[in-house]
Amino acid sequence: MTRIKTFITLTLLGGLAVVLPIAIFVLLFQWLFGQVSDLVAPAVVWLEAHTEFKNTLARLVVIALILGGCFAIGLLVKTSVGSWLHRHVDHWLGRLAPGYSTIKDVVIQFIGGGGEGVLAGPVAKVRIHGIDNPLTVTAIVTSQHPNGDMTVYVPTAPVPTSGFVFHVPAECVEILPGVSVEAAMKTIVACGSGSANLLSSEKKETGISST
Fold first, then answer.
1. Which residue, 40, 116, 122, 202, is the most exposed by fewest CB within 10 angstroms?
2. For residue 82, what are the CA distances in angstroms to 73, 75, 87, 94?
């Protein structure tokens, strides 16, 4: 009887392991599509009123137009005039909206652009409560001070565009060599999933060279 119960339980768990990720993905896609639909709703209403496109088709047309606009902007910034304009808009937004630079760097990391800015520093394990406390967090070193202390950014899961800034002694920072910011961000978005691979590096370094 016990073996039958074990078989049923393991089989059921195996099925759930297959079905749940698919179900969660579908729900996430539905939620994302709903958010995008709400965002483009005014344009959809106008399109439905002035064209033959209706309901879902109208939404898809609007989304396609938005993607087309993004493609056109991408072509524009490849030109000298577009690049100049982009730099000035970036500078202007960075001064008026401090969070813009962080969001920009995170987006660039996700799309594989590499990026330069506050999130371009090394990835580290940081003891934010002191060297004697075993608790560590995944962080990105964003600055090193003349006295050797470091400033680190600790993203929150699952939205890494928000987080906390800590100023800690160098001995509380363990640099993870060979770990990219992109790889670290993926584990943050996944609420820690994949951290075993992230932290599996045998060689650790403490601190970073001054710049």
1. 202
2. 8, 8, 9, 18
Cα gap 39→15, rounded to integer Å: 36
- Report the 10 Å Cβ neighbour count for 16: 11
Q: Which two tokens stand for residue 105?
A: 């760097």
For helices 80-96 and 99-110, the axis angle rounded to 10 degrees is 130
Question: Regarding predicted confidence, which is higher, 135 or 113?
Answer: 135
Neighbouring residues of 86: CB distance < 8 A, sequence distance ≥ 6: 77
Residues 139, 121: Cα–Cα separation, whole Å: 10
* Residue among 182, 168, 164 nearest 110 (CA): 182
The model carries a pTM of 0.47
Query: What is the rounded CA–CA span in Å between residue 188 and residue 110?
Result: 12
What lies within 8 Å, CB to CB, of 66 at 6+ separation is 40
Beta-carbon count within 10 A of 87 CB? 11
